[in-house]
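Reopening this one. Same input as before:
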Amino acid sequence: MKIVFLYAGQGSQKVGMGIDIYEHFPKYREVIDSVKPEYKEIMHHGPLEKLSETKNTQPCMALFAAGVTAVLDEHGMKPFMVAGLSLGEYSALHAAGVFDRRTLIDLVAFRGSEMEKASKGIACKMTAVLGFDKNLLKSACNEARAFGYVDIVNYNCPGQYVICGEEAAVEKVEKLAKEQGAKRCITINVSGPFHTKFMQPAGNALREKFKETVFLEPLVPVVFNATADFLDSNETIPELLEKQVQSSVYFEDSINKLIEKGADTFIEIGPGRVLSGFVKKINREVMTYTIETADDLFTLIANAEEFKL
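Same output, byte for byte:
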């Protein structure tokens, strides 16, 4: 069994996330209590509006991920490889030993704050386009750029792609896609044009932040969003993270790369079960598990021997 720990991104957050895990698992509780208490309060009690602010969402999601990862490690469950969706890539790097928990929370809190700053004053829209060919969607984006900037920002799985950009351009793509047979276009409630060129100021800020950050060599292989591949000798992790915040996320290709290298079991560390759904649409042969609740953790731990490397 070759296990991948797969970390969820922004959008999976919900009020009450991890509260039952906090009650039942001392190791998780230790992680949550190791940072300022306002994050625990927002995670457990909200309100949702506050949890959904990018500057809060990102550290809260990373904290949940770090806590669950610590519990799995305590029970001898370690990944063969790791990956994450957008924000989740930072948790994947933490799981791979690239930086410690405090650095993880510091980096994602900074990232969230800078992404919020970069979003101010931009009238943007993000839409999930379902049941549509990605090449046709690329063509629609090219045509719609007469109305403003728009691009595919998430290649999630076959038939599910996310576009983002200036409102008029996004709405033009929606119209074209529907005319050409797309099943649905669903508006995603986000606070900024994430993974687009508008995030360049956030990328620049991250570049400076990374100069004072220690990045260790990964203990297990990591597949990166911006390249859908493992680390190349011509790349550095800081460069890829700087690129990631302002470029498309190639999740579908990332999962295929992991499977190509032998991955047969994916454990999604949430909250949420979105990534497991994507994985099954990409390849129905692999096994998927999710860790969203204490019961999910109890179930995996009860069968820990088969998940150990």
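So the earlier flakiness isn't reproducible anymore. For the record, The mean pLDDT is 94.
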